[in-house]
Each structure stands twice: as C-alpha cells, then as structure tokens.
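Subject: Sanity check before I submit

Could someone independently write out the structure tokens for this chain? I want to compare against mine line by line before I put it in a report. The sequence has 123 residues.
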Amino acid sequence: MKRNTKINALLLALVAALAVLPLALGLGDDKEEPFTGSDGQAETAITELEPDYEPWFSPLYEPPSGEIESALFALQAALGAGVLAYYFGLRRGRRQGEQRATQARQAEERTDSGADESATGRV
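---
Independent answer below. Compare away.
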C-alpha cells in the first residue's frame, strides 16, 4: 500500500471516529437539545449572564424553520467545498502542465542536440 493511501485511510478513519464517537458515547444526553449550534449556546450564556442584553444588530433574513436554516447552512458548506476543490484542482493542473512542458522542452533539447551531433558527424 502506498504511503498516500495509508495517510488517506487514516484521515478517513479519524473523521469517521469524530462523527461517531459523540453519538456512541452519549455525549450531550443530559441536555434538552444535545447538539445545538454555537449560536444558540452563546445566546443562552449571554442571557444568563446579562438578562437585559440587547443585540446590536438583527439578522438580515430569519428562516421560517430550523430545517430551512439547516438546508441553507448545508448549501453554504457545499459551495465552500466546491470553491476549495476548484482551487486545489486548478493548482494541481497548473503544476502538472508545467511539469509536462518542462519534460517536453527537455526532450526537444535532447532531440535537437542529437540531430546536431549527427549532422556534424560526431557521435
């Protein structure tokens, strides 16, 4: 097995463990909503510390339900992943193109130098 394959398999196993372990170990069972987002937790902490707190800004758009909010978040994550994948693919393609151009240039130089030697009669 190649080194990169081993690293990828290890990273995949680590990501799977991070997703499954909190559920398997029952983390958050003592809470009403065990896996709420940090926004909700921050809001709860702020109202406990400062009940009269008034937010500075209000949201531009308030989704009508939690499902729509989750869908918009997933869409945002997918778009971000797409942009990152495009960027890394573009970088890899450019690097491969530069390597091929360099190899072609070197092969052409070798062919040209071989033709020069045969034309002069030197071997």
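---
OP: Matches mine. For the report I'm noting this point. Residues 65-123 form one domain.
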